[in-house]
Amino acid sequence: VGAGTYTIKAEVAGTTNYSGVELTAEFSIARASVTISGVEESYTKSYDGNAFVIPNAIASNGATVTKVITKGGEVVDAIIGVGEYVITYSVAESANYTAAQREITVTVTKANVTISAPQIEGWTYSEAAKTPSASFGEAFAQGSNGEIIFKYYTDAECTNEIINLDGIDAGTYYVKAVFAGNDNLNAVESAVTSFVITKKTIT
Q1: pTM (2 d.p.)
Q2: How does pLDDT run across 82-96, given as a tens digit for each residue?
Q3: Who contacts 84 (Cβ-Cβ below 8 Å, separation ≥6)?
């Protein structure tokens, strides 16, 4: 029988010497508790631009398990960006089973990225400076609000930065690509590339 309150009745029939008797009593069958399994207590992944695949949980009574994702107390549709998320799994109360709920956490950490060494052509003194190029080594970092900037130096150790290239003297110089990082990606610097500003020929 299912959960609920029931009445049981006992009867003893009368005899020649004894009268009959009838007794009743109530008893209850409580709803069974439900456990939710099939998932870990926590998950961790590094940001990669893809949504975290939400694991499916299993209810011990075979009931449907629903799930809600929150970040900072706000309901979200997917787990993508860096931060800590909570997935709440729930099983509704039924005639024979109590309701159940279980929370797990998913932490997305910042990703490490790489930047290619700058490519740049030298130029002749008094000409306009050439523009270098560099790119992220990871596909998910492209177009991720990650601006790559270039820093110029007089030395290969990159200790003496050049703030303005306009009118810079002929010689060998060095450039590296720099990314300051953002909400999902860690900061990074590229390897150093050298370039030459050649002397201008006087005619």
Answers
A1: 0.77
A2: 999 999 999 999 888
A3: 71, 105, 106, 107, 108
